[in-house]
Write a structure and sequence with these properties.
By secondary structure, the protein is an alpha/beta fold. The protein contains 10 helices and 14 strands.
């Protein structure tokens, strides 16, 4: 994939807080690029810089080979931004909000009507467009937020926690729309705390912490290079003696025993032998690569929502 966005040495400070500290990233054209990190890692700051909402203290961002700050007006015309906070007028209907924001973007006449209608259809708001947006459910509000971000038919769409606080049905609908947009040629930059979402839709991932990039690259390559993870399913109510686990690092969650990455086959064999000798039934055994949450936790050593 050819690079579309190149971020080099970006730094951003707010007073005494170093929000970003020498960030280097490359976003390929046509990617769904996930930004992950604990709260305060710098994800929203990076999105604000990409959209030109705040200037960097150091470093450079290039889009399509051109420096962002020199061509910001042109880039704004082909970029969309869906912020984490709901960004519309709650006392107005969904349709009226879209008409106002379309006007701000310079859309007029038939063009404005066509884009408003298209965004209402794309986000499934047809039945609700005439209602006051303050009366929308959480899922409908997120869909309206997305519709506004799509008015100018962006080729780059920045999404900051776009599914936070919504029901599973609305979440599934939005994820399907994001994938459809990407299939249509839109490059997505996707910030989220939800590991399953990122693993489902993202082709590339960067994990940030403390304003620095811990790892970045194609998701498949990042996960393929990880240590093997071993999970043992136990019969309900199985009792284990502590000394059986002295040779391994293990965490028990109900009837699931998860062994630490890097556990040797010899240690696993000894453990399974102890289970067999003492009548502990094993219902299943899985041996596979770590998932994105495993990688995240190994790198940040922090909870997902601290």
């Amino acid at each position: 994939m050819m690079s579309l966005i190149e971020i080099s040495g970006i730094a951003k400070r707010y007073g005494e807080t170093q929000a970003l500290d020498g960030v280097d990233l490359t976003v390929p054209a046509g990617a769904v690029f996930g930004l992950l990190g604990p709260n305060g890692a710098g994800k929203t700051t990076l999105l604000n810089l990409l959209f030109g909402l705040t200037p960097a203290c150091a470093g450079e961002i290039r889009v399509g080979g051109r420096e962002l700050r020199r061509y910001l007006g042109a880039f704004r015309a082909e970029m969309g931004y869906v912020p984490q906070d709901l960004a519309f007028y709650p006392s107005l209907s969904g349709r009226r909000n879209l008409e106002i924001f379309a006007g701000v973007l310079g859309l007029r006449g038939a063009r404005r009507r066509a884009r408003v209608a298209a965004c209402i259809e794309l986000t499934g708001l047809e039945r609700y467009a005439g209602r006051r947006s303050e009366d929308y459910s959480g899922g409908l509000k997120r869909r309206l937020n997305l519709a506004i971000g799509l008015l100018n038919e962006p080729r780059i769409l920045c999404l900051d926690e776009p599914t936070v606080g919504i029901d599973p049905q609305s979440r599934a609908f939005l994820l399907e729309q994001f994938q459809a947009l990407n299939r249509g040629g839109v490059t997505l930059i996707y910030s989220s705390h939800y590991m399953d979402e990122v693993q489902q839709i993202c082709s590339h991932v960067a994990i940030l912490d403390g304003g620095r990039v811990l790892v970045s690259g194609p998701l498949a390559a990042l996960l393929h290079g990880g240590d093997q993870v071993i999970e043992i399913g136990l019969a309900p109510g199985s009792r284990l003696h502590e000394e059986w686990l002295s040779g391994v690092q293990a965490v028990r969650e109900g009837d699931l025993l998860r062994l630490a990455a890097g556990t040797s086959m010899a240690a696993l064999s000894v453990l399974l032998g102890l289970f067999a000798a003492h009548g502990v039934a094993v219902t299943h055994l899985s041996y596979g690569r770590r998932n994105l949450e495993d990688l995240f936790m190994a790198l940040t050593n922090r909870s997902l929502r601290d």
